[in-house]
Amino acid sequence: MGSSMKSSLILFFTCSLFLQVAYAVYKTEVKCESLPNSDCAFAISSTGKRCVLEKAKKPKDDLISSEYECKTSEVMVQNMKEHIETDECIESCGLNRNFFGISSDDLLEPRFVSKLCAPACYQQCPNIVDLYFNLAAGEGAYLPDICNKNKKLKSSGAAEDGVDAPAPSPSFL
């Protein structure tokens, strides 16, 4: 095989590889505005920003109706991109797909905290735990401390029955 033929084959394989990588990147891109509302809450875009469901007023037959739209927030997530939360995590963590708005007030609800701190959520759903970890931090609290406090309240019988909360700090944070 001549040198010209080898160069052509190398060029062909290089171009082929480039196209495969470009197609893979294009295919997996997550853009909040392109997500259906049912996948929006707790999703993370390809740029690493959280997706949020927002009310949008749209004209409909000369009336203004309120609908929801998936939008890109300004909140960056470290070390996580192109993520759409699984149904298992949504259920395990006590959340729902039609989630509109998020509040640190959820961390005051023993039943919610029990689900969030349960191993099925806390150890298996890093995106959701990261979100609430940061919400707690914004209020000057530490999520593992909240989980420990909830666990102690339940073991003393002072809190509602639920799933035992683990105490470890998430290893992915």
TrEMBL record:
Give positions of region: Disordered.
154-173
Segments spanning the bilayer are none
Listed Pfam families:
PAR1
Indicate the secretion signal residues.
1-24
The alphabetical list of record keywords is: Signal
Q: Identify the domain of life.
A: Eukaryota
What name appears for this protein in its UniProt entry? NtEIG-E80 protein
Q: Which organism is it from?
A: Solanum lycopersicum (Tomato)
The root-end lineage is:
Eukaryota, Viridiplantae, Streptophyta, Embryophyta, Tracheophyta
Gene name as annotated:
LOC101261443
